[in-house]
Task: inverse folding
């Protein structure tokens, strides 16, 4: 048997390895069934808000598969210290299920799930896999579960206020008579008979731009760690999701306000949804523009080998 054939035989998984992985997967699903069932139920019921949670595990698994050559080259082995995070995650989840009511929280259970999964990976892959496991586990924890409304409100409410303020400012700059009270914009229109009518434009929580922000954060995080090697580029691209989502959302509210001047019914219903969908195109182009600028800010030095070859 030649060395290449021996290496391929050792690298390919045998039936015993597949059986162990299958048993672990079934045990994992059985133990965390309540969390997984609720998460899938909420994701399918609120696809616009949390549909990305169904894709996040696949992306996290892809990140791990992408790093697999580095993990394999550094040596895959059983690392018994991985039992510590695995055991802690299992006990934490059980405490959140059967413990005090204050701990009966979906996101606290999600921490136990991710901690257990990371501990299991550390146990089976060894200490060399730690730096490759951290990012997929964080990605899964942030984007793989539904975040409670109470936690979301810390971001949603400021985004509502900024969106309402920005849209009101643009309307005033456009010489329209508009008044801002809380998150409600009132547009005053004078008719032909000199009477004044009021068109209210309510910037509700659904209009805060949180849906767009979560989508761009998930996509931006994936793009950042695939396209860039420098941390400042990755952090900048991920952080740019906030101003991009806010800017496009302000424009969306502005467009809805202008449409309401034509017909108040145009600011609601299907038109309201279509405007949001249509503005996803410039939002995506703006996000790609930020990524392109970050690429052009860095000029990598030419490869020494190719440089010498060209010189000769």
Result:
């Amino acid at each position: 048997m030649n060395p290449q054939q021996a290496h391929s035989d050792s690298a390919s998984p045998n039936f015993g390895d597949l059986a162990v992985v299958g048993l672990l997967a079934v045990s994992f699903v059985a133990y965390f069934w309540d969390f997984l069932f609720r998460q899938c139920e909420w994701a399918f019921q609120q696809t616009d808000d949390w549909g990305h949670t169904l894709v996040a595990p696949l992306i996290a698994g892809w990140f791990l598969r992408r790093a697999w050559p580095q993990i394999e080259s550094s040596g895959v082995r059983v690392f018994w210290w991985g039992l510590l995070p695995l055991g802690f995650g299992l006990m934490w989840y059980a405490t959140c299920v059967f413990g005090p009511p204050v701990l009966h929280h979906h996101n606290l259970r999600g921490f136990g799930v991710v901690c257990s999964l990371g501990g299991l990976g550390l146990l089976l892959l060894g200490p060399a896999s730690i730096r490759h496991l951290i990012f997929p586990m964080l990605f899964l924890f942030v984007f793989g579960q539904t975040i409670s409304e109470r936690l979301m409100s810390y971001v949603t409410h400021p985004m509502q206020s900024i969106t309402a303020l920005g849209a009101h400012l643009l309307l005033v700059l456009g010489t329209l008579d508009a008044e801002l009270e809380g998150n409600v914009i009132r547009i005053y229109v004078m008719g032909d008979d000199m009477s004044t009518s009021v068109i209210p434009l309510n910037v509700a929580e659904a209009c805060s731009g949180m849906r767009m922000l979560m989508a761009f954060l998930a996509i931006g995080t994936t793009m950042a760690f695939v396209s860039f090697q420098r941390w400042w580029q990755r952090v900048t691209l991920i952080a740019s999701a906030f101003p991009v989502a806010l800017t496009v959302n302000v424009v969306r509210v502005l467009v809805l306000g202008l449409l309401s001047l034509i017909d108040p019914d145009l600011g609601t219903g299907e038109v309201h949804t279509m405007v949001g969908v249509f503005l996803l195109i410039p939002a995506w182009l703006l996000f790609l523009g930020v990524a392109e600028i970050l690429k052009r800010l860095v000029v990598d030095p030419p490869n020494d080998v190719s440089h010498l070859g060209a010189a000769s």
Residues 1-11, 305-312 have pLDDT under 50 and may be disordered. The first strand starts at residue 178 and ends at 181. The chain is about 70% helix and 5% strand.
